[in-house]
Specification:
Blueprint lengths: L4 H12 L4 H8 L4 H10 L14 H15 L29 H4 L96 E2 L8 E2 L12 H7 L24
Antiparallel strand pairs: 1-2
The structure holds a DNA duplex (11 and 10 nucleotides).
Length: 255
DNA sequence: CCCTGATTCGC
DNA sequence: GCGAATCAGG
């Protein structure tokens, strides 16, 4: 399998949608989880919350040095003046709430355009939450949107536990032949996704009217403000929250 | 154990 | 550029 443009596009979309490398690999088919991760890095898609990476290289080096020093007993203790905080990055006395790493890890790839941000209507009409101290956009809690996997054609599937049998065979459903219908006239298709439009899927994958939200994104996120509200929610205990998670598209469809 | 992503390094 | 092997945290 080679990395065709389509496959790369799918990888990007899914990666940005918060899918795990395993899910992406499975959806693409013919590639391993590692291949996906490797490719994602080469595409500079990184900046995903990693279970293994709380520190920057320097701290890591320091830790390694420390470990080495510790291991080799008393010998050359900490030759590196690492502890000093950067002048620019003064450590604010953060109360250390539940700040997710994903927020801190800003997208390096996102080109900041001098585009005049016309309006940022902080309309929070539909939010029932009585946040006394709104301040800025409240810190998102969960780094993982509740999307499931995306198939080879870019359509989305259900939970990963329900489509295993065929490991590499043809897609489970026939893809719609991209017919330019009036219905899809002003709908956003997968291929039209880009960095600044909402990638929230609407409708059911495989159906003629399946499309994406397409509104302007909440800067720094793959979704618009509205859908960010749906995508980023409190993380449930483990990854075993299949019981009716608020799926972005109409919900599981009994066939 | 399982999962995750990061990194390395031979190809 | 690719991805298996390896690493390391949850």
């Amino acid at each position: 399998m080679s990395w065709t443009d389509e496959r790369i596009q799918t990888l990007k979309t899914m990666w940005e949608a918060g899918q795990t490398a395993s899910q992406i690999a499975e959806a693409l088919g013919g590639v391993s989880r590692n291949a996906v991760i490797g490719k994602a890095h080469r595409l500079e898609l990184q900046a995903r919350p990693s279970p293994v990476k709380p520190n920057d290289p320097e701290a890591k080096a320091a830790a390694a040095a420390e470990a080495a020093a510790s291991a080799s007993a008393a010998a050359t203790p900490a030759p590196e003046p690492v502890a000093a905080p950067e002048p620019g990055e003064v450590e604010a006395p953060k109360p250390a709430p539940v700040v997710p790493p994903v927020v801190a890890a800003a997208k390096p790839a996102a080109p900041v355009e001098p585009e005049p941000v016309a309006e940022e209507p902080e309309d929070e009409e539909d939010e029932d939450e009585d946040e006394a101290a709104p301040a800025v956009v409240a810190p998102v809690r969960a780094p993982q949107p509740i999307l499931r996997s995306v198939g080879p054609g870019g359509f989305l599937r259900q939970a990963p536990g329900e489509q295993q049998p065929p490991s590499t065979p043809a897609p489970p459903r026939r893809l719609v032949p991209a017919k330019p219908s009036a219905e899809m006239a002003n709908k956003t298709s997968l291929l039209e996704l880009n960095d600044r439009i909402c990638k929230w899927p609407l409708g059911h994958p495989g159906e003629p009217d399946f499309h994406f939200c397409g509104k302007a994104v909440n800067p720094g996120f793959p979704y618009c403000v509205d859908h960010c509200g749906h995508a980023y929610q409190a993380q449930l205990p483990r990854r075993d929250r299949r019981p009716t998670p608020p799926l972005p598209f109409g919900g599981p469809r009994p066939r």
